[in-house]
């Protein structure tokens, strides 16, 4: 699980570097907001590789922990509990993003996650 946490940190650093480069390309290439950037989608491959690998290490480690700690009669319950916790993580994350979006729209601010990232940057909020 420690390897998974390390890989998440590497992924976040990679995401930050790619986003800085994307912003520079968007400022240079996109004079109109309707235009798209010339930056290739393949710049995201490395960051998604790190995120995917970290998920494998984290979820397999978590599943192994649940299976190792549960008695033989409750192994399937441990696996179910592991998958339920992963599902809850995803739902809470989605709920938080939805709440922040609704709050930011009600205060007449620009949206937190705009429809066009070249028009409004997340780094300026």
From TrEMBL:
Its main location: membrane. The keyword Amino-acid biosynthesis does not apply. One of its GO terms (cellular component) is membrane. InterPro entries: MFS_trans_sf, POT_fam. It is a multi-pass membrane protein. Gene3D superfamilies: MFS general substrate transporter like domains. Transmembrane segments: none annotated. Keywords: Membrane, Transmembrane, Transmembrane helix. It is found in: Membrane. GO terms for molecular function: transmembrane transporter activity. Belongs to the major facilitator superfamily. Proton-dependent oligopeptide transporter (POT/PTR) (TC 2.A.17) family. This is Uncharacterized protein. It comes from Vitis rotundifolia. The lineage of its organism: Eukaryota, Viridiplantae, Streptophyta, Embryophyta, Tracheophyta.
